[in-house]
Amino acid sequence: MSAIISISNLSKTYEGGFQALKSINLDIRTGEILALLGPNGAGKTTLISIICGLVSPTSGTVTVSGFDIIQDYRQTRREIGLVPQELSLGAFEKAWDTLRFSRGLFGQKPDDVYLEQLLKDLSLWDKKDNELRTLSGGMKRRVLIAKALSHEPKILFLDEPTAGVDVELRKDMWDIVNKLRDSGVTIILTTHYIEEAEQIADRVGVINAGELLLVDDKDKLMKGLGRKQLIIELKDPIDKVPESLDSYAIELADDGQELIYTYDTQGKSTGITSVLQDLHAAGLTMKDLNTTQSSLQDIFVHLVQDNKSNA
After folding, report:
1. Is 74 exposed, middle or buried (0-12, 13-18, 19+ CB in 10 A)?
2. Residue 308 within any structural domain of the chain
3. Which tens digit of pLDDT belongs to each residue from 237-252?
4. From 81's CA, which of 136, 155, 265, 287 has a CA 20 to 30 Å away?
């Protein structure tokens, strides 16, 4: 799959010496959903702002559909729709007027049919003539999304789009995101709701302290870095793990009532059969068995903690 955005050796150092980005290299594929995860201050918003032409890079290059973001600013900006974190809207504007103006600002011909459908998809049609100051925070967020899509961009950036909004809006928005992806739009989102990235993203990138730690297909990432655990509930609690089980990665939990065995899903053998045999040989009686697999959040926390410890 071809890259619609190519980022090469991108760095950003602000006045005062703070380095927000450190030599970022990333190709974003046409038509994918890429989730960028990272703690506050990791560099996510700076990266988006540079690609969108809102912040100048210190060094490196970015191309959008083959056009340079600095030399061909007008062309690249026309390709992009941005939903920022902040609710930046004129208080006395009306939803319909702000959408028509935004579409024209990017040089697109009027298309009221498209804008009407956009407002209906975002449950905003009945609010189209309301002044924006009269809308709730959730409704204003919907208007920002509609505004970003008003000129039919090929790329949509969603910077913490569902932070502080209602569940209904999240559902509406992810429905629209899926429709856009199906139509070929490339979507890049940052989010603190890691479960959303786990549900919707094709690939996941992890940023911390200005460094891109990892970018990989979500399923491959979870399969490769995710842990599986066998949770063995004992009939009777024990004080410590028997010495005969020391060769296994087994922890004692729940006041001695559970044994937790962590194993590698990619290994030739999980070792589960041997564990259960040695458990029986040690005179322990099982009450129940369960398995769990680490989530994307577990992987994210692990990667960030490793990055901090190696800094």
Report:
1. exposed
2. no
3. 888 888 888 888 788 8
4. 136
